[in-house]
User: Which sequence fits this backbone?
């Protein structure tokens, strides 16, 4: 008898569960609920439901998966970026966050105690030992040597349950459109990722560089020579990309990136050039002429190159993604168009992170 009733309860629970899942994930199948489904799409109530159902993010197969990496110095950027995506998304989004060990709890609190509390996310600490002894900068900007800058190489290892399309966005960006659209980019046959080329779209004329591989890579290096790549090939930006994480795994892209990372500590491969090193050159070597192009409007960049304004307000209004790549970050004192970023920034409830603004005292 006991066993029977347990079974019955099990069946009832399974049916209830199924009903909730259908309602949550396929709201369009239930036209009568269309008006309510907007909230559901935004992820409201989902976080709690997840815990209740003992599910994890790998079970959300039809959602848009977004990875963001950040350390204690830039963590406010991660929050503003999440908020911008959350604000404009009409589809379920799962955030896969990576930070340094000391920021994990900080981020959890920031999400829990603010309007972001309903987002679906997971957060991992990046094991900095993965890149220990593998980072060598020769000149350039010291922040490019931060371990978290290289976490993007390790997405399959950080998120072993994650499959399919994954979007990576630098934490010095904000999104002004539905990120679902970005996830719908078709990777061309044989391509593992999509990037924004430096030679098309509005970002081109602003760089003051030629936007070519020679800006980033040392073509005197023997191993680089063996690749037979063209120094005048157009570069691309690695701050925003869409990848098929299964293909990335299958093709050992992480190991390929590590190869160049390591080689650069022993030989001059990159880092002394105008590009200044960082995580960009190995990706340019691995994905040479082997990537799908993103629509330029999904990475309007170089806002951090100069403190002066280089884009008009009306141009930026049309941008789907705005990226402060360069030195002058939107949480710093002198960034251009930081008012756009401020719209999405959510004050840190623990008071540890504070953007520097002219109207702040001191
Ligand atoms: C996610 O849940 C599945 C079962 O639903 C389990 O097999 C898997 O190990 C879980 N992954 C993590 C990271 O908890
Ligand atoms: C959740 O995903 C895991 C794979 O990570 C799978 O093994 C499990 O069956 C899924 N659970 C449900 C309830 O769909
Ligand atoms: C990836 O690495 C594994 C283990 O080193 C190897 O067995 C496999 O052949 C590699 N795959 C490719 C496509 O290089
Ligand atoms: C493009 O990348 C894939 C996966 O790494 C590889 O199999 C293929 O040979 C590459 N194609 C070219 C033209 O380099």
Assistant:
């Amino acid at each position: 008898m006991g066993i029977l009733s347990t079974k019955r309860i099990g069946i009832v629970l399974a049916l209830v569960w199924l009903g909730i899942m259908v309602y949550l994930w396929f709201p369009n199948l239930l036209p009568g609920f269309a008006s309510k489904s907007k909230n559901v799409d935004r992820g409201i109530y989902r976080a709690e439901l997840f815990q209740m159902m003992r599910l994890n993010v790998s079970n959300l197969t039809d959602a848009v998966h977004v990875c963001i990496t950040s350390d204690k110095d830039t963590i406010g950027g991660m929050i503003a970026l999440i908020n911008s995506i959350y604000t404009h998304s009409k589809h379920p989004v799962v955030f896969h966050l990576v930070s340094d060990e000391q920021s994990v709890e900080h981020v959890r609190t920031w999400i829990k105690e603010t309007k972001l509390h309903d987002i679906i996310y997971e957060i991992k600490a990046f094991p900095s030992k993965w890149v220990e002894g593998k980072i060598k900068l020769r000149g350039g900007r010291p922040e490019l040597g931060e371990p978290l800058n290289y976490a993007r190489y390790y997405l399959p290892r950080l998120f072993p349950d994650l499959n399919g399309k994954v979007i990576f966005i630098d934490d010095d960006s904000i999104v002004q459109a539905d990120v679902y659209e970005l996830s719908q980019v078709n990777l061309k046959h044989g391509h593992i990722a999509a990037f924004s080329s430096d030679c098309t779209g509005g970002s081109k004329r602003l760089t003051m560089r030629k936007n070519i591989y020679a800006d980033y890579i040392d073509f005197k290096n023997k191993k680089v020579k063996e690749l037979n790549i063209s120094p005048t090939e157009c570069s691309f930006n690695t701050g925003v990309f869409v990848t098929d994480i299964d293909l990335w795994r299958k093709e050992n892209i992480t190991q390929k990136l590590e190869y160049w990372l390591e080689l650069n500590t022993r030989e001059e491969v990159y880092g002394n050039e105008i590009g200044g090193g960082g995580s960009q050159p190995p990706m340019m070597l691995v994905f040479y002429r082997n990537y799908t192009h993103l629509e330029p409007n999904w990475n309007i960049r170089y806002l951090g190159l100069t403190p002066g304004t280089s884009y008009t307000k009306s141009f930026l209004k049309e941008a789907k993604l705005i990226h402060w790549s360069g030195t002058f970050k939107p949480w710093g004192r002198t960034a251009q168009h930081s008012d756009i970023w401020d719209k999405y920034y959510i004050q840190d409830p623990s008071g540890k992170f504070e953007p520097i603004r002219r109207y702040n005292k001191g």
Notes: The pocket of 2-acetamido-2-deoxy-beta-D-glucopyranose (ligand 1) is lined by residues 56, 58, 161 (CB under 6 Å). The two ends are 74 Å apart (CA to CA). The beta strands are 64-69, 93-99, 120-125, 165-169, 173-175, 193-197, 236-244, 292-293, 321-323.
